[in-house]
Amino acid sequence: MEGLGLSPATIAVGAGRPERIPGAPLNAPITLASALVPGAGSEYGRHGNPAWDAFETVLGELEGGDALAFSSGIAAATAVFDLVPSGAAVVAPRTAYSGTLAQLRERERRGLIELRLVDITDTEAVNRAAADAALVWLESPTNPTLEVADIEAIGRAAGQTGTAVAVDNTFATPLRQRPLQMGADFVVHSASKLLSGHSDVVLGAVVMNSERAHRAIAARRSTMGAIPGALECWLAARGIRTLHVRLDRAEANAAELHRRLSASPAVQYSRYPGFGTVVAFEVVGGADAAQKATEQSQVVVYATSLGGVETTWERRRRHAQEPTTVPEGLIRLSVGLEDVDDLWADIEQALLVSTGISGSRAWPRGR
């Protein structure tokens, strides 16, 4: 579908489908095979599978590059980190996904990289740190504090120094920002989240617009064995078909919940970057009150992951490896597709009960 000038919504629905010939299926089939007949590309399941193609095609067209699927988001990030020359510097957000930071710190401990942690909202500081670095790793918005980087400005500066830029685009998705068109060299996704959208897949992806980078990342996927499953790619491709409508609804819910949280006496502050489906807020009463709130909900699911059709929340500092820059009482709220008034009634009662603020009411309220 490339070259037709189609909107992202149309690409999400139509890209990566089989050729339209009589008798062909509308959807790409799941190919369960560890070996393929030689002579038409890949002949071994670790190097390629027809079931990967639909997901990689639709994501690549949405991002404006060539996609490669991985077994998980952290496996995709690992492939990018593995390109960094030994001893070179990597610039990364001081507050970011804990799994990513844990891997970068481990690489630093082993002497493989020099890690420079920065405030990614301070573009000048990022560019100074990146001037002689091999890689700038960005999350925008960051997980879980929702800080936003100036990707274009950082990309321009990196282009002048030869520094590679990689952007974790999991929270924004290519429907809200396309980092490759903003100066990035790599885009990484945890496709377990909004792309697949139904909390039933563990999958990752790297997208790039350089043939050389594509070959390098593909080689690492194969040699490290971080390959995706056929079923996971099929489910993720199916999930992308509804990404635009899911994102629109969840964003509307997130914006409204942010507005109500900002006015709640049980909340110290609420942060929402204006796009995406995640709201971060800090609860009056700190860690104990925040933890209690997440365990009080009846509609909102107390769970770690995000980006599904269901609304989930958790206190992020309950995880030992979460960065200490994340406040103890911060709750990450991943907003889904439920009725926003039902969500608010559940959230409000949980917050009021956990903080002991008067005016709490039993859920559900009568209508």
Automatic annotation (TrEMBL):
Signal peptide: none annotated. Keywords: Pyridoxal phosphate. It comes from the Bacteria. Its cofactor is pyridoxal 5'-phosphate. Gene3D superfamilies: Aspartate Aminotransferase, domain 1, Type I PLP-dependent aspartate aminotransferase-like (Major domain). One of its GO terms (biological process) is cysteine biosynthetic process via cystathionine. Its EC number is 4.4.1.2. GO terms for cellular component: cytoplasm. It catalyses: L-homocysteine + H2O = 2-oxobutanoate + hydrogen sulfide + NH4(+) + H(+); L-methionine + H2O = methanethiol + 2-oxobutanoate + NH4(+). The modification N6-(pyridoxal phosphate)lysine is found at K193. It holds the Pfam family Cys_Met_Meta_PP. SUPFAM superfamilies: PLP-dependent transferases. GO terms for molecular function: cystathionine gamma-lyase activity; cystathionine gamma-synthase activity; homocysteine desulfhydrase activity; methionine gamma-lyase activity; pyridoxal phosphate binding. It is an enzyme of class 4 (lyase). InterPro entries: Cys/Met-Metab_PyrdxlP-dep_enz (IPR000277), PyrdxlP-dep_Trfase (IPR015424), PyrdxlP-dep_Trfase_major (IPR015421), PyrdxlP-dep_Trfase_small (IPR015422). Belongs to the trans-sulfuration enzymes family. This is homocysteine desulfhydrase.
